[in-house]
Amino acid sequence: MHFDDRLATVLRIRAASERAAKTQFRQLIDLLGERPQAGDKALKAASYLRLIALGEMISVADRAKMVGESGWRFRNPELVKWFGEAHPQIAAAALYRAQLTAAEWEEIIPKLPIRARGFLRHRKDLPVEAERILDRLGVSDRALPEPEPFELIDEISPPEPEAETPEPAGEPAVEVGPAEPTPRPAPGKDDVRALVDRIETFRKTRSGEAARTEAPRLPLGEAVDEEAKEPLGHFLFAADSEGRVNWAEDRIASMVVGIDLAALGSDTIAAAIQRRQPLDASRVTLRGATRIEGDWIVDAAPRFTRGEGRFFGYVGRFRRVVSDEADRREAEADRLRQLLHELRTPVNAMQGYAEIIQQQMIGPVPHEYRSLAATIAGDSAHILAGFDELDRLAKLEVGALDLESGEADFAAIVRKQVSQLQTVLSPRVARFDAQLGEGRAPLALAQSEAEMLCWRLLATIAGAVAAGETVALQLVTEGDQVELAASLPASLREAENIFAVETRPAGGALSAGIFGAGFSLRLARAEARVAGGELVRVGDRLVLSLPLLTAQDTTFSPENASG
User: Fold this and answer.
1) Signal peptide span per the entry (predicted)?
2) Torsion-angle region of residue 86: left (phi > 0), alpha (psi -120 to 50) or beta?
3) Is residue 16 situated within a structural domain?
4) Residue 423 sits in the same domain as residue 356
5) Same domain flag for 244 and 115
6) 433 has which bridge partners?
7) In the predicted model, is pLDDT for residue 149 greater than 60?
8) For residue 290, with 0-12 CB atoms within 10 Å meaning exposed, 13-18 middle and 19 or more buried, which class applies?
9) pLDDT tens-digit profile of 86-135?
């Protein structure tokens, strides 16, 4: 006989800090948010009292943020009603996340405060019964009303630059049209928008704002341009007579305007600016936003006025140093490795504590808890294995990791692993139709590296094979290369990009890894490239090609040099 003691377990823990209070708050609303079930009423009442106590330790904004997080199961009408009587921010977040049946909405809506009922007007997924109750209670404005038609009384005319009369201090007078208003038909949405634009243009022209808004400014609140996501290779700029950038392209202006070229570069650049000489392939280093950080080459020509010949600055172009792209990718990979290091720490701690409980190192533990601890330890190991794969891929793609050298017979490895996988595929009436031959295919890789690469490819394909499906395998040695070609299973054949992370076949006895088949194949491709080969898709086949170990390589290998 099993009973649910999760609420009691959570309530036994005392939240001594704000962080612990937030954790317990999340745990309680997660447990109370499930469908109402039979249980200890006193325990549930204690849970609500604990929520009230925790609310004194957590600010309203933080509680509203936690309640509004996705993933909660607000299916309990009691909890929804309880939150509906809370602070308006919390009530709005809870009613937006609530997932009740039509009958439950009919029962709970009349019990909600009037303010809380108003929050429901923004829900577009309420059942028809709930909308009927809201209409009956007078909460019928679930959308903004359409603007009522109106007539244009006066039309604002643009100013005439020839005769502009002086105006007194304060707001500028608005010039109007004829004294007698002319009735016009009710405008549409486009006409209203055009009128608003004309009013704004008139106001800016009269107040001198039009010229100011054309100056570069920080992109606060504007939509992010799709071009901003692409790597920046070059941009145009202009600088004043002292070498300070005062104009740049719109896409980069906010990041570079104000930069002093003389302070960035060497004494040569400063001397060239003082002598009004051109800047030819001058190297500078920019610091700041990610898109501009790094080494650049500056090419600029001096500008002079036509009449007096007075020097008033430079105009030119920044272009990125070619090798900086590789440095940027390596920096990104290094940041990923640092992030993985930070993530490993708590996972290692969870795994260690779980193993302590499972092995009863600090005292007797019930078998049920030992079973849970063993599951946690296994999940932790699975997560750590995924972190290792991410770290390996990041290092391989930036060239920071080389595969261990040695000598391995790739053909023998393929035959052995295909034989092992056949036993797994047989219960599903699936199989490999393999034509592997009897020859050898020596590679300049260590045995473990070659086995890992082969298994990553074959196990991923085998894991995607459906019941009754046959995958054709062919191993061919031509010249100085060995090629392993495999037909794609139906689940992978439909993928537009087979190396994408989203490519996730159905789970089975064989796992493609924590990140799916697409990631595993991408990792196999990175390993193949580091080994001097390639993994590509050709039609409905995956082809792995690797360079063979020649007799010359064997003769002069480090292992044979000592002999």
Assistant:
1) none
2) beta
3) yes
4) no
5) no
6) 472
7) no
8) exposed
9) 888 888 888 888 888 888 888 888 888 887 787 787 777 888 888 888 87
Residue 18 lies in a domain: yes
Determine, yes or no, domain membership for 149.
Answer: no
Helix (H) or strand (E) holding 136: helix 128-136
What is the distance between the alpha carbons of residues 261 and 244, in angstroms, rounded to a whole number?
6
Rama region for 180: left / alpha / beta (φ>0; ψ in -120 to 50; rest): beta
397 SS3 class: helix
- Residue 431, sorted as left (phi over 0), alpha (psi -120 to 50) or beta, turns out to be beta
CB 134 within 8 A of CB 143: no
Asked if 7 contacts 33 with a C-beta cutoff of 8 angstroms, the reply is no
Residue recorded with tokens 């090609």: 545
pLDDT in tens, 456-465: 899 888 888 8
What pLDDT sits at residue 388?
87
370 contacts: CB under 8 Å, gap ≥ 6: 357, 358, 360
Instruction: State the burial class of residue 113 (Cβ atoms within 10 Å of its Cβ: 0-12, 13-18, 19+).
Output: middle
* Number of domains composing the chain: 4
Please give the structure tokens belonging to residue 315: 């105009």
pLDDT digits (tens, 9 = 90+) for 304-343: 888 788 888 999 999 887 655 555 666 666 677 777 778 8
Residue 313 inside a domain? The answer is yes
Provide the domain limits for residue 442: 408-554
Q: What is the token pair recorded at 5?
A: 């003691």
Length of the chain: 563
Same domain, 316 and 430: no
On the question of pLDDT at 552 being above 60, the answer is no
The predicted model scores a pTM of 0.43
More confident residue, 242 or 212: 242
355, 297: one domain: no
Rounded (5°) CA angle 164-168-174: 60
pLDDT of amino acid 181? 45
Give the separation between CA 439 and CA 412, rounded to whole angstroms: 8
Checking if the pLDDT of 221 tops 80, the result is no
